[in-house]
Design brief:
By secondary structure, the protein is of the alpha/beta class. It has 5 helices and 15 strands.
């Protein structure tokens, strides 16, 4: 696998377009200098609330698509749910509204050197970064299959995109409103068997990533998971997004999702211990006796 790196920049951008997509909001932002460097799996951090806001922390958003050319210069597209003051403010912005953007941030998905069969698994709007990845994989001669899941049809994202670019698409919803009733892991092994999957790329809720990693481990297939941890600074300073990850030597270390991630090997993340500092973590205080 190969992996691209980039140098993040801060841009005084603006909203180009905004629209609703099911339960989510889709924003296209003019952000020259960011779009040109972005690799699939990276994210941007946006200042929210306006110049006089009390909302001091940026909000991190996975990058859905980028365009490095056009009338307005480079553009970055994001998809998000309005769940709090910051994202609710962002959802209210109109074309030409100014937005301060930092990016691209984080480590991207590692790309294969040779054509492979790749299965891409997304949950809710967490599937957004998988579509740019799919285009990149296809341009390198790889086969792409999608498994998309959500709680309901309204919370599913990208089904039409997936059908346009993938060899096969499997869709699941918790309530059965579209596709098969159930979760992505109910169909993942079957899809992998049929496609002869060499690698799985996944993005979505942490519980989904844990389950996907388990399926892949059982089949001896590498899983690359883009985690959805809360990120306050996006540049590795505040330490709010740390999680326990095993190194190649087996040692567990608390690593920053925004810098060392957001993409990790599924088998390396200690999913059951996310949100804690395991006693055997490097540098952890000795357990009390």
């Amino acid at each position: 696998m190969t992996e691209a790196t980039s140098r993040p920049v801060q841009v005084h951008g603006e909203v180009l377009t905004t629209r609703r997509v099911g339960a989510y909001h889709h924003l296209s932002l003019v952000a020259p200098g960011i779009a040109e460097q972005t690799r699939p799996g990276q994210f941007v951090a946006l200042a929210v609330g306006g110049p006089d806001t009390a909302l001091l922390l940026r909000r991190a958003f996975s990058i859905y698509r980028v365009s490095s050319t056009g009338v307005y210069g480079g553009t970055v597209e994001i998809v998000f749910a309005a769940r709090g003051p910051g994202t609710e403010w962002l959802a209210r912005q109109q074309p030409h509204s100014p937005v301060d953007v930092v990016g691209p941030l984080g480590r991207p998905f590692a790309l294969p050197r040779e054509p492979v069969s790749a299965t891409l698994v997304g949950g809710g709007y967490g599937s957004a970064p998988l579509f740019g990845l799919a285009e990149t994989l296809r341009s390198r001669g790889s086969r792409v299959d999608f498994v998309l899941g959500a709680g309901s049809e309204q919370r599913l994202f990208g089904a039409l995109d997936a059908k346009r670019m993938a060899s096969t698409v499997a869709i699941t919803t918790d309530d059965g409103s579209t596709g098969l009733r159930g979760r992505v892991t109910d169909v993942l092994a079957q899809v992998m068997e049929r496609a002869g999957t060499d690698v799985v790329y996944a993005c979505g809720p942490m519980a989904m990533l844990q389950a996907v990693s388990r399926v892949c481990a059982d089949r001896g297939v590498t899983a690359q998971c883009a985690v959805e941890e809360s990120m306050a600074c996006g540049i590795g300073v505040c330490m709010t997004c740390v999680l326990p990850v095993r190194d190649e030597d087996g040692m567990t270390r608390m690593v920053r999702s925004c810098v060392e991630g957001p993409v990790f090997r599924g088998e390396a993340v200690r999913w059951e211990d996310v949100g804690t500092v395991p006693d055997d973590t490097y540098g952890a205080p000795a357990a009390a006796h």
